[in-house]
């Protein structure tokens, strides 16, 4: 096993532990927030609330998240090559791009709120979308700062930010719960304030980093580094973000069309249970920042695919089994009107237990290899399957059909992603069988992990 530099496995473990620790605490606060929101709203109102958030998320996702990892990968690669000037220019240009896009997204939602509501057939949504437009603006600032955290591998801050935002939201919701009459618009406004306060805190904590990145700030419009990246790889990545966010946020409206607004609420509750559980193992977010350092080392990437998939799968299986055992009691005690969401949750877990680890690692690996063209095909296929499978399954299986669509789509896309990954790495198709072995490399990994834990334990005792 290559010992050059820091071990990817130890770095991944450390980053995953930090993010998982903060995520666990954030999830607990988020559960309380969810309880308050679900208590304050009827099932129908919660369905409306989900539909509004889908409109907001569709706009912000398409404009902000789609190219972040591509830019981060390029900055990390340039920094590893000691080409710090180009790394800084890429960051500066992308920061300006994101600021412009944040303002555009806000203006479209705020000024066109009523037109969007009328088009969707819900006149009352206009006010809710206008309030939510400010959430898009402040989240735009967060995404801009989040890039710096990911480039510098500040996993502690990445995790603590979410906790701070959830804590602020909790305080505001409790204030509403005890002193004000609740409503959809007021709950959305609480989220706006939570995003604003959290953004300001994160801005101050990273002010010195920003001074470094923007020292000597100058945009050369005749030689834009961002344009070169976008032209080479970014067009595929940007299209990926657009299609992926569309297919994800169109689902509540398909549920509304085929079944009812109440079904939107129940399905979303089950999906959120799965999302919270899946967030306890944020390996993909960690490994995305570490793989660019190995982009030229094909042998290490092969080991990452095989052994990374193995250990990510073990983590996902352990967390999923715990969720399967605890979810029924949790829902029965706290959210009894959402008991019908449990089958949705269990169907989602099928993908997590069986092939979730392989899919996460393979997609991260392809991104580090700059296979944006291939990765664009996956969201396009997902969007196609979302429409076709839901049209077939929703009328027959109701809201459970949409959960089965998720599992089937995840299996197909994981199969394709894995096939492309092994082709790029020169591995045989049956290489995944090695996931079920325990060999010398596994022994070396465990020895290093145990040694690291022993050293930490000795330092603590001393």
Overview of this structure, please?
The chain is mostly helical. The chain has two domains: 209 residues, no CATH class; 186 residues, no CATH class. 82% of the residues lie in helices and 0% in strands. Helix 3 runs parallel beside helix 6 and helix 12 runs parallel beside helix 15. The two termini are 31 Å apart. The N terminus is likely disordered.
Topology of this protein?
Layout: H1 8-40, H2 43-63, H3 68-80, H4 84-111, H5 113-120, H6 125-151, H7 155-179, H8 184-205, H9 207-213, H10 225-249, H11 251-258, H12 261-278, H13 283-290, H14 298-334, H15 342-354, H16 356-368, H17 372-397, H18 399-425, H19 440-461
Question: What are the key terms here?
Answer:
single chain, 462 residues
Class from secondary-structure proportions: mainly alpha
| Main sheet specs | none
Ends distance: 31 Å
Can you give the helix content as a percent range?
over 70%
The backbone outline, from C-alpha atoms, is globular
Range of strand content: under 5%
pLDDT < 50 stretches: 1-6
Q: Round the Cα radius of gyration to an integer and report it.
A: 22 Å
N-to-C series of helices and strands:
HHHHHHHHHHHHHHHHHHH
- How many alpha or pi helices? 19
Please sum up the structure shown:
The chain is built from 19 helices and no strands.
């Amino acid at each position: 096993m290559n010992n050059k530099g820091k071990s990817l496995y130890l770095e991944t473990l450390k980053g995953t532990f930090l993010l998982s620790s903060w995520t666990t605490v954030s999830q607990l606060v988020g559960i309380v927030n969810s309880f308050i929101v679900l208590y304050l709203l009827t099932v129908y109102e919660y369905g409306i609330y989900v539909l509004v958030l889908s409109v907001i998320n569709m706009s912000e996702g398409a404009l902000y998240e789609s190219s972040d990892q591509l830019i981060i990968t390029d900055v990390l690669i340039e920094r590893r090559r000691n080409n710090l000037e180009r790394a800084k220019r890429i960051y500066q240009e992308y920061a300006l791009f994101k600021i412009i896009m944040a303002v555009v997204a806000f203006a479209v939602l705020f000024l066109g709120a009523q037109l969007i509501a009328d088009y969707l057939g819900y006149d009352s949504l206009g006010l809710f979308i206008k309030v939510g437009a400010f959430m898009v603006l402040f989240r735009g600032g967060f995404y801009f700062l989040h890039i710096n955290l990911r480039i510098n591998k500040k996993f502690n801050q990445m995790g603590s930010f979410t906790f701070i935002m959830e804590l602020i939201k909790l305080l505001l919701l409790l204030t509403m719960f005890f002193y004000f009459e609740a409503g959809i618009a007021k709950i959305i406004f609480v989220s706006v304030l939570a995003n604003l306060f959290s953004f300001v805190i994160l801005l101050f904590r990273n002010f010195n980093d920003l001074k470094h990145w923007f020292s000597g700030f100058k945009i050369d419009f005749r030689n834009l580094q961002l344009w070169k990246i976008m032209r080479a790889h970014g067009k595929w990545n940007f299209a990926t973000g657009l299609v992926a966010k569309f297919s994800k946020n169109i689902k509540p409206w398909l549920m509304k069309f085929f079944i009812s607004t109440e079904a939107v609420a129940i399905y979303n509750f089950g999906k959120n249970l799965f999302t919270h559980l899946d967030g306890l193992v944020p390996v993909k977010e960690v490994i995305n920042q570490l793989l660019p350092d190995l982009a030229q080392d094909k042998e290490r990437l092969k080991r990452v695919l095989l052994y990374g998939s193995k250990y990510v799968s073990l983590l996902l299986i352990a967390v999923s089994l715990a969720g399967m055992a605890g979810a029924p009691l949790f829902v029965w005690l706290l959210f009894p009107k959402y008991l019908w969401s449990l089958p949705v949750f269990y169907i989602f877990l099928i993908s997590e237990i069986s092939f979730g680890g392989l899919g996460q690692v393979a997609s991260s690996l392809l991104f580090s290899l700059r296979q944006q063209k291939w990765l664009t095909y996956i969201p396009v296929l997902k969007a196609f399957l979302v429409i076709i499978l839901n049209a077939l399954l929703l009328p027959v299986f109701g809201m459970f059909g949409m959960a089965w669509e998720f599992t089937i789509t995840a299996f197909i896309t994981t199969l394709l992603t894995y096939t492309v990954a092994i082709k790029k790495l020169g591995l045989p198709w049956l290489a995944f069988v090695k996931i079920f072995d325990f060999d010398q490399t596994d022994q070396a990994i465990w020895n290093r992990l145990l040694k690291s834990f022993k050293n930490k334990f000795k330092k603590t005792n001393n």
